[in-house]
């Protein structure tokens, strides 16, 4: 058994929060570069160039790339041989988010009660997904999720007979409805299968996959390619101001499901596709 | 496409010459307000009460910044999704706001209001927050301080880069541009991105 001090979790989460917001991942920057090369719209091309400049400035000056530093979504995989001492696990994660958003000068974008809508002032609570896995390590990923793209995400139960065509239509319609509101170029996380709760979780996890990496199953990888092409044929383009680069990537995750059901979820990730991982 | 350098207050003549797709570098005073502030202001207008800040003839920037680091005027800032302010926009234009700055497409009610009241809706690039924050030279919270990042702020901006998205003719840049690129790859036989 490995003993890990709770304080290490807090410090790690705090650092992940601001690092995620300041430094756009390399796979996203590479995605911008590819898109800029092929973008047909002059407005779209100029937007992509400015986004790359913005990323560079944010990195150089250690500033948030986007002012919407999101609601923090924290994914934790805890090895079953780890014992956390010196504090309550969930409290430590929340304290990490609190510290990270304060010390990183990130925007506090969370209201406590969804109807009373009073800002909590420290960006907590974060959404925390915990999984127990084999081993004695802890893997933490922070995904600061912006509101504009999250708002445009959607879920639907299709009839099983609607099959792959039904999935394609639903994903495409969701992207068309979102248009420029979701801050394209976007990453389109898709979940297929599972239950009501599972399918949205699949879509969210899909967003974490590196741009450029396809699903291991050939028929799902094929669907990812087809959807990417179809989405970029919508004409929506960067910021919805027209163009051929609406999506940078379409990662799909799947799970088994009930004989009656074909659930599909689309989690849209804006161009500020931030994510940062640490393994303790 | 024409490029204009405009100084606030934007005159009715300025508004008339602006067409969708025009680039504007805006210098002067603008006011930052978003969801929660709009909800309060439109309630005041509906009850014939004065707004906490005079906004007649002014430009509203739909945004909420990050806190500034020591030595910064303002933290990173860029427009939020304009669509969420659509239900409030016609009342604000009718009151006398001449321009709004947001990101993303808007509903017909906004197009109609721009046409009716001789106003425009500008687009700035969503998420261009580090770059845009450098165009802000001064900032002051002027109302609704309790709303934190959603408080109303007065900004002094210099050469703030904008695109005219909806003009006073009721034209729509988003619709026009998307139509050009729909199925573009098939039309030109180019490979998809």
TrEMBL record, chain A:
TM helices/strands, residue ranges: none
Keyword hit for Iron-sulfur: yes
UniProt key word 4Fe-4S: yes
Domain of life according to the entry: Bacteria
UniProt keyword terms in alphabetical order: 4Fe-4S, Iron, Iron-sulfur, Lyase, Metal-binding
Residues covered by the Fe-S hydro-lyase tartrate dehydratase alpha-type catalytic domain: 11-278
GO molecular function terms noted in the UniProt entry: 4 iron, 4 sulfur cluster binding; lyase activity; metal ion binding
Family in the record: Belongs to the class-I fumarase family.
Protein name according to UniProt: Fumarase class I alpha subunit
Lineage, broadest ranks: Bacteria, Bacillati, Bacillota, Bacilli, Bacillales
UniProtKB/TrEMBL annotation, chain B:
Fe-S hydro-lyase tartrate dehydratase beta-type catalytic domain mapped to chain residues: 5-176
Keywords of this entry: Lyase
Domain of life: Bacteria
Gene3D superfamilies given in the database record: Fe-S hydro-lyase, tartrate dehydratase beta-type, catalytic domain
MF-aspect GO terms: hydro-lyase activity
UniProt similarity note: Belongs to the class-I fumarase family.
UniProt-recorded name of the protein: Fumarate hydratase subunit beta
Organism: Cytobacillus firmus (Bacillus firmus)
């Amino acid at each position: 058994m490995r003993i890990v001090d709770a304080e290490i979790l807090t410090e790690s989460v705090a650092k992940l929060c601001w690092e995620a917001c300041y430094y756009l991942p390399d796979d996203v920057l590479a995605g911008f570069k590819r898109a800029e090369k092929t973008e047909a719209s002059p407005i779209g091309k100029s937007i992509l160039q400015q986004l790359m400049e913005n990323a560079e400035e944010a990195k150089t000056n250690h500033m948030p790339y986007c002012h919407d530093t999101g609601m923090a979504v924290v994914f934790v995989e805890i090895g079953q041989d780890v014992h956390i001492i010196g504090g309550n696990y969930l409290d430590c994660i929340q304290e990490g988010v609190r510290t990270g958003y304060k010390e990183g000068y990130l925007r506090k974008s969370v209201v406590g009660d969804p109807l009373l809508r009073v800002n909590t002032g420290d960006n907590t609570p974060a959404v925390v997904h915990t999984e127990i896995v084999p081993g004695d390590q802890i893997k933490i990923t922070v995904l600061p999720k912006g509101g504009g793209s999250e708002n445009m995400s959607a879920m639907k139960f299709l009839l099983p007979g609607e099959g792959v065509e039904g999935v394609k239509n639903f994903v495409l319609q969701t992207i068309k409805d979102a248009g420029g509101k979701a801050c394209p170029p976007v990453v389109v996380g898709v979940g297929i299968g599972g239950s009501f709760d599972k399918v949205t979780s699949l879509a969210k996890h899909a967003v974490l996959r590196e741009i450029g990496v396809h699903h291991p199953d050939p028929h799902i990888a094929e669907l990812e390619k087809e959807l990417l092409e179809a989405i970029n044929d919508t004409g929506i383009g960067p910021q919805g101001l027209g163009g051929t680069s609406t999506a940078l990537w379409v990662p799909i995750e799947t799970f088994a499901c009930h004989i009656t059901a074909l659930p599909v979820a689309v989690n849209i990730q804006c161009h500020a596709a931030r994510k940062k991982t640490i393994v303790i | 496409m024409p490029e204009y350098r405009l100084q606030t207050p934007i005159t009715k003549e300025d508004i008339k010459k602006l067409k969708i797709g025009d680039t504007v570098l805006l210098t002067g005073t603008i006011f930052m307000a978003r969801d929660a502030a709009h909800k309060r202001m439109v309630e005041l207008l509906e009850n014939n009460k004065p707004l906490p800040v005079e906004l007649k003839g002014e430009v509203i920037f739909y945004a909420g910044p990050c806190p500034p680091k020591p030595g910064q005027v303002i933290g990173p800032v860029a427009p939020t999704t304009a669509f969420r302010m659509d239900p409030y926009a016609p009342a604000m234009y009718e009151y006398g706001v001449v321009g709004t700055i947001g990101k993303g497409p808007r509903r017909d009610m906004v197009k109609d209001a721009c046409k009716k009241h001789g106003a425009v809706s500008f687009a700035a690039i969503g998420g261009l927050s580090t770059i845009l924050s450098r165009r802000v030279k001064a900032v002051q919270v002027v109302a609704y301080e309790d709303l934190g990042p959603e408080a109303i702020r007065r900004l002094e901006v210099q050469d703030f880069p904008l695109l005219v998205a909806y003009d006073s003719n009721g034209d729509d840049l988003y619709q026009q541009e998307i139509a050009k690129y729909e199925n573009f790859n098939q039309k030109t036989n180019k490979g998809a991105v």
